[in-house]
Amino acid sequence: MANRHLARSVAMQSLFEWDFKGTPTAILPAIIDHNLTEFAPGLEEKEFSKKLVDGVIENLKEIDQLIGSYAPSWPINQITIVDRNILRVGVYELKFSKDVPPKVAINEAIELAKSFGGASSGKFVNGVLGSMFNDMVKENPDLASS
């Protein structure tokens, strides 16, 4: 598994655990450290995992609003915890992070959904992030080539 993909996987798993436990932000650093040790010993991109989690938390309200607007039939609390946190990472990378090309962010989220989610998770994540990306391209056509 490539370093950044593994780092995203650890970030998503950490957000999943945090969400499952009722979103106690104080324990998030310990969750991340534990998951990096448990699932990614020797990972060179540890800071990337932490940056993803921090970025999601810092922008959580806006991220959840965006998910809600692109998945109106699914209120955020009705989306499975796995899919919700995969989408959070994907939306963060797509909308807030400048480190990753948009198409890479979408493809990585889809791969996480296929690995960790249910049978239709990949299609769901693709639909939400794809719609968001299409709207972003309407606002900034240069994104289509990135």
UniProtKB/TrEMBL annotation:
One cellular-component annotation, GO: cytosol
NCBIfam families, A to Z: nusB (TIGR01951)
A GO term for molecular function: RNA binding
Gene name tied to this protein: nusB
Function, as annotated: Involved in transcription antitermination. Required for transcription of ribosomal RNA (rRNA) genes. Binds specifically to the boxA antiterminator sequence of the ribosomal RNA (rrn) operons.
Pfam short name (any one): NusB
Keyword Transcription regulation: yes
Record organism: Candidatus Magasanikbacteria bacterium RIFCSPLOWO2_02_FULL_44_11
A single BP term in Gene Ontology: DNA-templated transcription termination
InterPro entries found in the cross-reference section: NusB-like_sf, NusB_fam, NusB_RsmB_TIM44
Domain NusB/RsmB/TIM44: 7-132
Keywords: RNA-binding, Transcription, Transcription antitermination, Transcription regulation
Record field: transmembrane: none
Family listed: Belongs to the NusB family.
CDD domains assigned to the protein according to its UniProt record, in alphabetical order: Terminator_NusB
Protein known as: Transcription antitermination protein NusB
